[in-house]
Input
Amino acid sequence: MDMWEDDEDDYPETSMDRFFSRVFAGFEDPLFDIESRSLRPLFRVEVNEEFVVVAMDLPGARKEDIAVTCTEELVSLEAEMKKPVALRVSGAGARATRFERYSKKVRLPVRVVPEKATAKYKNGVIVVKLPILRTGKAIKIADG
Amino acid sequence: MPQTPPRVEITEYGNRISKPSVIVAVPDVGLIGTIACSYIVEQLKFEPKGHIDSDLAPQVMLVRDSVPTYPIQIFGKDKMLIVISGVPLRPKFSLELAKEIARWAKERDAKVVVGVSGAPSRKREESHGDGVPTVTGVSNDQVMLKGLKAIGALPLEQGGLTGFYASLMKYCMVNDQANVTLLGESMLQFPDPGAAAAAIGVLSAMVGLKVDTKPLLKESEEVRMKTRELMSQTQAAQQPTVGNPSAYR
Output
């Protein structure tokens, strides 16, 4: 039996549990929401000259189950996991909690053009590229 | 009045392994060392051999089967000791810990101290973790440095290290202790079991271990799930040095 379990009341320890429980401390965690049974994915935002790049780590999700939307200022992601996952999370007692989806809203550091956004998903990592919105106009410089 | 230096205390249990190879893993880029060394400890059934404590250590104790344990543990088997921190290290503690491990290794007449770390790679993120990540290595021992290619690592010719592994390297040099730092090409901010498996391949060849990494790769998604909290906390602990990856080229 592995962590991708439906029955949260029956969670025998796996070898993966054993080797991580040896080294994992389990802090207070903002990375999940028990009520909605959703995990907040790890994410990274990078701004380069042309794009805002948002990468999220979504192990256990399938491409067809991921919905990404964006506005000029916000990227929202909802993804169903291929199987519910039982994880022990801090603040939820000793029992494993079952999570079924990922959910995340990322506020962007600059405004983007949502219509021109692209996304690629592979190996549980989604990378969204959003062209930066250029609103300024070039000012012609006259001879002095 | 002179200040008392911060205390870092290494306690060992049971029979001592003489002239050990010492492998060290603390959480950093991609959790390469933590994942790789935890996997080796579990797969090869290393025994608990000690722990490290300090006034500077995070106020954390792990509880395993109702038994409290220190967050920095030492495991051993045959001629090998593995030091693993299960908690992220703040810079001050990181420095003192590296200093003490280097001193202790020299005192224990260690054959080599190997740090297992990650090198953040945009290419690896852009390829979504596809392909076989490279492992680079750096050593203060000329024989070991020359041997890196033969065991599948590219010698780091130019660049730098920062953080714990830089301090470990420095204090090994100060103590005239052979040191190798391995850097698995890693996802930038996500746990990367694929890179950890590549690092295990090089490490195994270096210190003579036989480790099957197929189960680690097969259970990669599980590992990423179970280490996400540690990854997040590690990033938080390293906030003052954001923008300074642990290795750059």
